[in-house]
């Protein structure tokens, strides 16, 4: 069952991101693990693409512990906004550790710096995991400003964005508005996969 | 001595992030308590109430030993500081506390340090709920701990709400956790 779910998610994401510059994925809390597994498998299966994964949710070390194939994927770089804030330090070549999830300007710079190293002909993708977690640490207005900025800069460089948002009861108004800035919204429901 | 947590403030938002530094002795105690809870449950024919009671007793014991003397009148701030310092950090628990008010706080636990068990073991999730509930209700007898989402069910983090003054519907939470455990265990 889990494989069917993950394969279904992978296919939907792959199809959507090919034709849209930015997609927002709105998912119920309990589908998070399946969704990120689908994204990571998509990354693994396409080694000629360049990916940046911005994590505001789990520390980089937890992600590579959970998905053991990740260190072998040479086409993904991480930006971890949590570890240093929690005093966890485990340096890695594949990850940039930002001091705090509130340093949005720095996060933006690091994203663009990584993509600067990638040649123009390579397909480039950015995952923001997640918009809802950025709102835990930052004022929604500031996150909106950051997201506008990232969307504009990545569009200019032909970088595709996948931004995740966890659905909560009484979904935050700002989050709702933010996620709809994307070209396409995918609403994850078990029954639709 | 500095704060046992990193304080992040952005406008009206006040967020505290724990600074996990595992101390083997404390981590070990939790692991042993979890094993005891599992063992007792098996001895009692799989009765989940036994595991919950053991977890709560472990939490109450930690409160007596490590927190009780920190305050006479508890508020959420006064409770959170020593809990982070004496329990979360030495157990290697990475957590963000948000929406902190006098009688309520929300926590997002993103890491359980060395012991991986908690994220993929349903009984460990129940144990974590029970022991945190034991610690919390020792300071706030009218309070309740609500488990909003858990990693074992595929959520990004374990989300708890600490309510110092529980309302009637909150009182059902402990039973809900136990029933969830039973129904999901049958399905798995």
DSSP strand count of chain A: 7
Number of helices of chain B: 6
The count of domains of chain B is 1
- From the helix content, strand content and strand pairing of chain B, which structural class follows? alpha+beta
Helix content of chain A: 40-55%
**Considering DSSP H and I runs of 4 or more, what fraction of the residues of chain B is helical?**
40-55%
Q: What is the beta-strand fraction of chain A?
A: 15-25%
Q: Give me the CATH superfamily of chain A.
A: P-loop containing nucleotide triphosphate hydrolases
CATH class of chain B: Alpha Beta
Give the uncertain stretches of chain B in residue-range form.
none
Structural class of chain A: alpha/beta
Mean pLDDT of chain A: 91
What does the model show?
- The complex is a heterodimer of chains A (193) and B (188).
- Chain A contains seven helices and seven strands; from the N terminus they run H-E-H-E-H-E-E-H-E-H-H-E-H-E.
- With 193 residues, chain A is of the alpha/beta class.
- Chain A has a single domain, classed as P-loop containing nucleotide triphosphate hydrolases (Rossmann fold), CATH 3.40.50.300.
- Chain A has a seven-stranded parallel beta sheet with strand order 4-3-2-5-6-1-7, with helices on both faces.
- The termini of chain A are close together.
- By secondary structure, chain B is an alpha+beta fold.
- Chain B has one domain (5-187): Muramoyl-pentapeptide Carboxypeptidase, domain 2 (2-Layer Sandwich), CATH 3.30.1380.
- Helix content of chain B is 48%, strand content 20%.
- Chain B is built from six helices and six strands.
- A six-stranded antiparallel beta sheet of chain B has the order 1-2-3-4-6-5.
- The longest helix of chain B has 20 residues, at 24-43.
